[in-house]
Write a structure and sequence with these properties.
Elements (H helix, E strand, L loop, with lengths): L2 E5 L5 H8 L4 H5 L3 H13 L4 E7 L2 E13 L3 E9 L8 H13 L6 E6 L3 H9 L3 E7 L7 E7 L5
Parallel strand pairs: 4-5
Antiparallel strand pairs: 1-2, 2-3, 3-4, 5-7, 6-7
Helix pairs in contact: 1-3
């Protein structure tokens, strides 16, 4: 089975919206497929966004949405990453994360993301990829949920 990465296209939006709403985040944040379709359509129109998918064989297995200078207006920020639940454990999330880092490495800045405190599986995944907890935002998006700020220090050459 071959995995390839490519830019997200307009015709991918519906499937990516389905993938985004298939996670446990849906219940807490009230994600809907229609809401995700609108977000992704708008994001595609904005040149500064990085949106890409992993294809596993010929179907989309996951996607990521990043902003090159979305963290503190100067550093790479991973806005969202999602893998089809039936495809988890195949290295797709790691591939998406590596692509985010590769596409923004020219900025020579550390990499940032937020992860919900209840999403322990994701926290563990990011820590395995050398992301560290550097702060927390309580009640930031949803009352009762703390968003953990994670940073991966850029390797200097």
């Amino acid at each position: 089975m071959e995995m390839t990465i490519r830019d997200l296209k307009k015709e991918d939006i519906s499937l990516c919206a389905t993938i985004a709403t298939s996670s446990s985040l849906q219940d807490v944040y009230g994600f809907t497929e229609m809401g995700w379709k609108e977000k992704l359509e708008k994001a595609l129109e904005q040149e500064e966004n990085l949106l890409f998918v992993v294809e596993y064989d010929t179907s989309i297995a996951g996607f990521a949405w990043a902003h090159p200078v979305g963290a503190f207006l100067c550093a790479p920020y991973l806005r969202f990453i999602s893998v089809n639940p039936t495809m988890r454990g195949k290295g797709i999330g790691k591939l998406l994360l590596q692509e985010f880092e590769q596409r923004t490495s020219h900025l020579h800045k550390d990499y940032f993301l937020l992860v919900s405190d209840f999403n322990t599986e994701a926290i563990h995944f990011y820590e395995k990829q050398r992301y560290e907890r550097v702060g927390a935002l309580s009640d930031f998006s949803v009352v009762g949920v703390t968003e953990i700020i994670m940073r991966k220090k850029r390797l200097t050459s």
